[in-house]
Amino acid sequence: DNVSGALVCRQDIYLQLLEGSLEAVNATYMRICRDDRHVGIKKLVSRRASNRFFSNWAMLHDPAISLIWNQQQISAGILDRIPQSEIIGMFEAISHRPDLQDFDH
Predict the structure, then answer these.
(1) What total number of domains does the chain contain?
(2) pLDDT tens for each residue of 19-49
(3) Is-contact 8 60, C-beta < 8 A?
(4) Is residue 62 in a domain?
(5) Cα three-residue angle 13-68-63, rounded to 5 degrees
(6) Which residues is 14 bridged to in the sheet?
(7) By residue range, what is the domain housing residue 38?
(8) How many other C-beta atoms can be found within 10 angstroms of the C-beta atom of residue 39?
(9) What was the pLDDT predicted at 11?
(10) Is residue 105 in some structural domain?
(11) What single string gives the DSSP state of each residue in 3-61?
């Protein structure tokens, strides 16, 4: 599909950034939504970007070591209140970390 991105996960949260053409990203997102293993799916950000953060990765995996919100903040619904720029900023920061692994390779 030529979709790249990152998956941040831990016990209480999964955040995924999908990058690629609008058609490819939408198709991937719809597959995720139809998959009954996934519940409570919310689209937090949708925007066009001139560059990919994870262009060299099929899907970067970050085991939430770098996640900036703690479990109490997640439980209190911080993802419903923070600006989209903060979410994008978190993924951008992850994209610059040399210690993370490509999940698909």
Answers:
(1) 1
(2) 999 999 999 999 999 999 999 999 999 999 9
(3) no
(4) yes
(5) 50
(6) 9
(7) 4-100
(8) 6
(9) 77
(10) no
(11) -EEEEEEETTEEEEEEES-HHHHHHHHHHHHH-TT--S---------SS-SSTT-SSEE
- Sequence-distant (6+) residues with CB within 8 A of 25 are 3, 18, 19
C-alpha 85/C-alpha 87 separation (Å) is 5
62: helix, coil or strand?
strand
pTM: 0.75
Q: Say how far apart CA 38 and CA 23 lie, in whole Å.
A: 21
Read off the DSSP letter of residue 2.
Answer: -
Amino acid identity, residue 103? F
Residue 51 in any domain: the answer is: yes
CATH of the domain at 31: 3.30.70
Residue listed under structure tokens 């903060």: 86
